[in-house]
Write a structure and sequence with these properties.
The protein has four helices and 23 strands. With 449 residues, it is mostly beta strands. It has a single domain, classed as Beta Barrel (Porin).
């Protein structure tokens, strides 16, 4: 899902904008740092505490990221997978028990040759009863137990950001939603209503190539892939539900969702455009301590409302999805985790019989395993990690090595890679092999408080 663009102009103006913002932010930061502390005869007075606690918290981040393909990708016209400057402004403020938050990004992207301003977060959270909270506006939403695997989490993701090597937080795209939380001794309930459908920020061929099942070949822009979004009406909004309870350090949860697939994985042959299929999801999860680690189980039933019998070749079939995982700190500052994941496609024989290219359809049982190892050293200033996906059924893989070094509280560096591979060009990770890339980023953060 693309955040609303507040401004868009050529990259030639970007440096002037960034310089102005950096100078203004630095001036504000210096002013806040150098301002003499007000005299206070009674440091513990209630009036003084209330005044200080009501001050807004403002912070800034300036980040540069650069990445390139490991080998030439002839399907896209750019040689870089990441080439951008980003300025982040964040502000939070409490009015009693009411919280307001704004996060805005200004990004100069050399690949699109544009500078855009986007709102990542603009919400108000407040209690409306002793056991009921409401959160209104643009917000980041997430739930489920998977580590970079999403079964019941039907909130939008930014796969372009993830494959580019941007900060991991950008994998989660924002939603314009209303979230209501109800808390009781029996169970807690989250209800989330998204009035207008929010899709993933999916691959369009501009930055990364992908497999096109209609032409049975890899595809890259121009032209960029464009899908037909559901009508922007309340009728086509999304509703998500979670009921959860913690008992003896174990968390149990039930999930429900009704809306659309987050990727345009269906196709309208009349309009010759990719579309989002209507979908319903029901699931459950269990998270529990086990053997000095953390064990999780999760299940989801993705029910395709546009293809209940599974014989429409242009609409993905319903699926059962299963996940089991375990994470543990094996030795001091070394953490490992493994996951096993299965997608069971329903009515698979009907799918194969109706398919235009059955040899390239998903396996009836797609299996996937993941492994993570992370190591903290140098007083936690240096963090090394490796996360990997491997599919025995698809015979493809995806590896994410990463090194993050924090020089001080303000400056950090990160270097990593996104390495894809597979035996066949139509599998989930195999299609992305030409997009393998390495990247580096540095971030400078400070606060005016």
């Amino acid at each position: 899902m693309n955040s609303p663009k507040l401004a868009s102009f050529p990259l030639s103006k970007a440096l002037l904008v960034f310089l102005s913002l950096v100078l203004c932010s630095a001036a504000m930061h210096a002013g806040a740092t150098q301002a003499p502390a007000p005299e206070a005869e009674d440091d513990w007075g209630d009036e003084t505490w209330e005044e200080e606690s009501s001050k807004p918290s403002i912070s800034y981040h300036i980040e540069a990221g650069f990445g390139g393909f490991i080998h030439p990708n002839s399907y896209v016209k750019h040689h870089h997978s990441l080439s951008e400057l980003r300025y982040r402004w964040e502000a939070t403020h409490y009015w009693g028990q009411t919280l307001g938050s704004v996060k805005a990004d200004l990004t100069a992207d050399n690949i699109t040759n544009k500078t855009t301003a986007t709102l990542r977060e603009t919400f108000i959270a407040l209690p409306i009863a002793s056991n009921v909270d409401v959160k209104l506006g643009r917000q980041i939403l997430t739930w489920g137990t998977g580590d970079l695997l999403f079964l019941n989490d039907m909130f939008p993701k930014d796969w372009v950001a993830f494959f580019s090597g941007r900060q991991l937080e950008y994998l989660k795209a924002p939603s314009d939603a209303v979230k209501v939380g109800v808390f009781s001794a029996l169970a807690n309930v989250d209800i989330i209503w998204t009035p207008v459908f929010d899709s993933d920020n999916y691959l369009t061929g501009q930055r990364f190539s992908f497999y096109n099942p209609l032409t049975d070949e890899l595809y890259g822009a121009p032209p960029e892939l464009t899908a037909l979004d559901p009508e922007k009406t309340f009728k086509h909004g999304e509703i998500a539900l979670r009921v959860y309870k913690t008992l003896n350090s174990q968390e149990f949860a039930l999930y429900g969702y009704k809306g659309f697939s987050k990727q345009p994985s269906a196709f309208d042959p009349d309009r010759m455009k990719p579309i989002f299929t209507k979908q319903q999801v029901l699931g459950a999860s269990w998270l529990s301590p086990f053997a000095n680690g953390l064990f999780n189980l999760e299940f989801a039933w993705h029910y395709s409302l546009n293809d209940k019998d599974g014989n429409d070749p242009f609409v993905p079939n319903s699926q059962f999805r299963y996940l089991v995982g375990y994470e543990k700190e094996v030795i001091s500052k070394v953490t490992t985790g493994i996951q096993l994941y299965v997608e069971a496609t329903r009515n698979h024989s009907a799918l194969i019989q109706s398919s235009l290219n059955p040899e390239n359809k998903v396996e009836e049982y797609r299996t996937l395993s993941t492994a993570r190892i992370s190591y903290r050293l140098m007083q936690d200033k240096l963090r090394l990690s490796l996360f990997g996906y491997f599919s025995p059924s698809d015979k493809d893989h995806y590896w994410l090595p990463k090194a993050n070094y924090r020089l001080n509280d303000r400056l950090s560096l990160e270097f990593g890679a996104n390495i894809f591979g597979g035996e066949k060009p139509h599998t989930f990770f195999g299609q992305l092999e030409d997009n393998s890339n390495v990247y580096g980023r540095f971030r400078y953060s400070f606060s005016s408080n």
